[in-house]
Amino acid sequence: MRTETRQPRMRTLLVADVMHEGVFACEREAPLSEVAATMARERVHCVVVDSGSGEAGPPWGIVSDLDLVAAALVRDLDDQCAGGSAGAPVVVVAPGETLERAAQLMTEHNTTHLIVIDPQRQRPLGVLSTLDIAAGVTRERSTAPRSNAGSIPFDSDARRRR
After folding, report:
1. Average pLDDT value for the chain
2. Where are the domains of the chain?
3. N or C: lower Cβ tally within 10 Å for the chain?
């Protein structure tokens, strides 16, 4: 009889295997109503908030769908900006990290989204959510593309405005 030892999928799968490529981004001053419209239109659960410095570097924060709901309880979203509601600093992970490490980061920081960062350039490559991890560990694969089609490259000077 042969005993086979298998590593749990959390230890063997990488962030790059299950992440969504691309991010939707806004500037700190963007009204939360615009952020909410982007989330609804694009069917995403978070938007990256740019540092606004104009220099290369990591993102400043992230606005999640839950952040929007909490902000809407306080006052009208037109009267609030992304920078005021964003979780900062944003929690990042490299694409070469394991899902186990990503799950540890999510748990430690009580967040459902990590921004996947290019380790050399420190610029966003995509997003990893708790649902992405669930799909990876259960071997469930969506037939939908694994990217945020139409997302705005973080380096872009042109930000989508409505």
Report:
1. 82
2. 9-137
3. N
| 3-class secondary structure per residue, 45-98 | CEEEECCCCCCCCCCCEEEEHHHHHHHHHHCCHHHCEHHHHCECCCCEECCCCE
Q: Check residues 136 and 52 and name the one with the higher pLDDT.
A: 136
CA dist 118 and 122 (Å) reads 5
Q: What is the pLDDT of residues 86-95, one digit of tens each?
A: 887 789 999 9
At 132, list the tokens. Answer: 């992405």
CATH of domain 9-137: 3.10.580.10
**Range from 33-42, 69-78, 88-97 carrying the lowest mean pLDDT:** 88-97
Q: Is residue 122 within 8 Å of 38, Cβ to Cβ?
A: no
